[in-house]
Amino acid sequence: MKTLLLVFFAYSTIMMMCHRPYKYDSGTFSSSPVNLESFNSVYDDYNSSSPTIWETSPLCFSSNRNSKGGQFDIVYKLMETVFDRVNGQITVDEYTHNWAGEIELNAGLADAVTKINSDSTELGPYLIPMGLYYSNPVEYYQYIFLYSTEISGNLDIKFTENVSSASFSEPRDIVYLNSGKDDAYPSLNKDSSAIYFCSNRGGSFDIYKADINKNNGILNELCDTSSKPISKISVLSSEYEDKCPFIAGNLMVFTSNRPGGYGGYDLYYSKFINGSWSEPVNFGDKINTQYDEYRPIVKALIPGFTNDMMIFSSNRPGGLGGFDLYYAGIDKMTGLTWK
Q: How many independent structural domains does the chain possess?
């Protein structure tokens, strides 16, 4: 998929050079948040997750639109990022025209959210892309889909996958991550040697991790029913609520209502340097407001852009209602490079 997109990007560049002049060699996402209008509703839309290397990619997020303000379900849509090299315009919109069959290749995700959603709340979707399955004429993308659900009375982390078959499996618990309290927002680190998540098992929400054996394969590790040591990441955790960790390479972004912010929940980042996470840094008043900024994710390695895209939710005024999804450009801090 990455190779196909690079070929398409190069072909588009050549065609524009031949048929019309272009002014811009690269695009830069605005550092001021932009409302993702085509994905939002008058209800609360947040908790998104998307793979990090595709110009066209699935966007899964939580919303209470289906219940008209009640429990949250996970919604799946395809997102497309387009940069016009002639006028410099960047468009981030729902993908509907099905170039290269992207809708069919990702169609299984509609089955996934059907398996995931219940009469209880589902939050914190996290997609692990596992590659393209191809056996003529069958072709589809394989994913492991992590999330949390309140179906047992508190938030537990579960997963479903279509790696072992074309259809997504019935959801299963990630046993060693769950406690008698709320456990949510799982995210793999750069080399898939640990799963980070947040939990209020210690009173307030803090950020924790479980080390896993990447040599066993991520699916086998998620299915493991034995216990694993769980450790709190002290440098990222405070006496307040620290939630929604998301890792892209050497960068972690999360939300916190700790003092020193701009009001409500703010977005912070930390870098993994020399084997440990750095002191969290507030993203500042270009992104944070006196309202709540929540569940950030980072899309890196988008071809043709000088910076990375961070998607998050906020209940600031000016949206369609409740929490809306926004995106903003952030400096490249992930350490990820094209292979």
A: 1
pLDDT at residue 7, rounded to an integer: 37
Which residue range is the domain that position 36 belongs to?
A: 2-330
Q: What is the dihedral of CA 282, 284, 286, 288, to 10 degrees?
A: 60
Q: Which residues contact 332 (CB under 8 A, 6 or more apart)?
A: 300, 306, 307, 308
Average pLDDT, the chain: 91
- Which H or E run contains 222? helix 218-223
Write the DSSP string, 245-279.
Answer: EEEETTEEEEEE--TTSSSSSEEEEEEEETTEEPP
CATH of the domain at 55: 2.120.10
Residue 337 in any domain: the answer is no
Rounded to an integer, what distance in angstroms lies between the CA atom of residue 25 and that of residue 12? 12
**Nearest one of 192, 330, 322 to 253, comparing CA atoms:** 330
What pLDDT band is residue 339 in, cutting at 50, 70 and 90? low
In a domain, 233, yes or no: yes
CB atoms within 10 A of CB 35: 17
With vertex at residue 192, the alpha carbon angle to CA 188 and CA 198, rounded to the nearest 5 degrees, is: 25
Contact 31, 328 (CB under 8 A): yes
Do the beta carbons of residue 325 and residue 60 sit within 8 Å? no
Cβ 141 vs Cβ 167: under 8 Å: no
Is the residue at 212 inside a domain? yes
* CB-CB contact of 268 with 253 (8 Å): yes
CA distance 257 to 267: 9
Q: Does a structural domain hold residue 26?
A: yes
- pLDDT of 301 > 90? The answer is no
What are 19-71's pLDDT values in tens digits? 455 788 889 999 999 999 999 999 999 877 875 444 888 999 999 999 999 99
